[in-house]
C-alpha cells in the first residue's frame, strides 16, 4: 500500500537510536530532510509545491477546470517535540497525500483545487511559540513579533532561518508580509491527526471528528533569589528560588486536579546549575489548559497567587510572562457534523480535544476548519509510545478522502 511505503520512508528521519523518539526541530538538517521527502512525494504525484519565506509548504492538485475556484486544504506538520512520537503531525501529512492517491484511484475529479499543507514549528519546541508557522501564515503573528525569539542554544529565529537558506528573506517582505493571502479564500481546511488521548479507545471507534479545542497557553515563570554556598549558608539565611519553584509546581498540579483541568511544568532551567551552590534563578514553563477561558484564567491566577505568597516567604522574586495563549476554538459545527455523518456505519463520534493544532489557528483566522482523529491505542502522545494501528490509519485515509471529495466537489 502507498500509505505504508510512505510511512516506512519517513520513519527513520530524526529518530533517536537510544530512545526510539523523534527530534524533528524546524530549520535543522533533519527538517531539510523532511522537507525534501515532502517535495519528492509531491513531485511523484505531479503536485506543484509553493513555499513561503518561513518554510510553510503546500502541494497543489489543480485539475483542469478548477481555476478561480476556492481551494480546499488539508495537511498538518512534520516537526516534533523533543523525543516525541512518530504520529503527531506526520500522520496528517502522509494521510493527506494518501487521500489524494485514493481519490484518483476512485476516479474522483475535484472541482476545486486541493492543497496538502505542511506548517512549520507547530509544536513550538524550538522557539517557544506553538503553531508559529500557521500564526504567521494567517497574520495572527508578524515577523516583527517573532524574529528575535531565541531557542535554548541562544540562536535567534531570524538567524536559524538564514542558516536554513530557504530562499526569500522574511524581513524583506515587511512586518505582515509572511501572510499567505490565498488562505483567506480557502473553502475549508481539514486536518487529520492522531488522537492524543483515549477518547476513541473508550468509544471503540477508529476515527473521530473534533468539536473544538480547549483554551490553553504557556507561561514563563522566572524566580530570582541569591546565589550562595551550599555548605556554609545556613538554611534560614537563604533566598533559594528552587524552593519557590518547587512549591509552585506542586500547587499547579493540585489546583488543576481539583478543578478538573490541566497544568504541567515540563521545562526547567536552574542557574548557575552548580551542585554545590544555592541557585540564583530558576526559569520554568507552565503549560495550562482548561475547558473554558474563564477557567483557564482562574487556574493560572490561582497558581500565580500561591507562587507569590511562597516567594514572599522565601525572600525571592517572581515574574510571570505569558508567552503563548490560545482561546477556546469551536470548529465549524456544520462542517464537523457533515464529516461525522458521512461515515457509512452511522457516523463518527464527535469529541473535544485538549491539544492545540494548526487547524485551530486557521479557524481563529476565519477559515472554516475541521479535524479528524485516528485512534491511539496507547492514549500516549508526545512520547515514543505514541501509536496508531495501520488499519485505523487506513480508515483515517478513507475518512479524509471522503471529506475532501465532499468539500471539493
TrEMBL record:
Print the keywords alphabetically: Hydrolase, Metal-binding, Zinc
Task: Report the co-factor binding details.
Answer: Binds 2 Zn(2+) ions per subunit.
Binding positions for Zn(2+) 1 per the UniProt entry: 77, 88, 193
Q: Provide the binding site for Zn(2+) 2.
A: 88, 123, 382
EC number(s) stated in the UniProt entry for this protein: 3.5.1.87
Residues binding allantoate, per UniProt: 218, 276, 289
| Segments forming domain Peptidase M20 dimerisation | 218-313
GO terms for molecular function, please?
hydrolase activity, acting on carbon-nitrogen (but not peptide) bonds, in linear amidines; metal ion binding; N-carbamoyl-L-amino-acid hydrolase activity
The kind of enzyme this is, by top-level EC class, is hydrolase
Names of the cofactor(s)? Zn(2+)
Describe the family membership recorded for this protein in Swiss-Prot or TrEMBL.
Answer: Belongs to the peptidase M20 family.
| Listed name of the protein | N-carbamoyl-L-amino-acid hydrolase
Ranked from the top, the taxonomy reads: Bacteria, Bacillati, Actinomycetota, Actinomycetes, Propionibacteriales
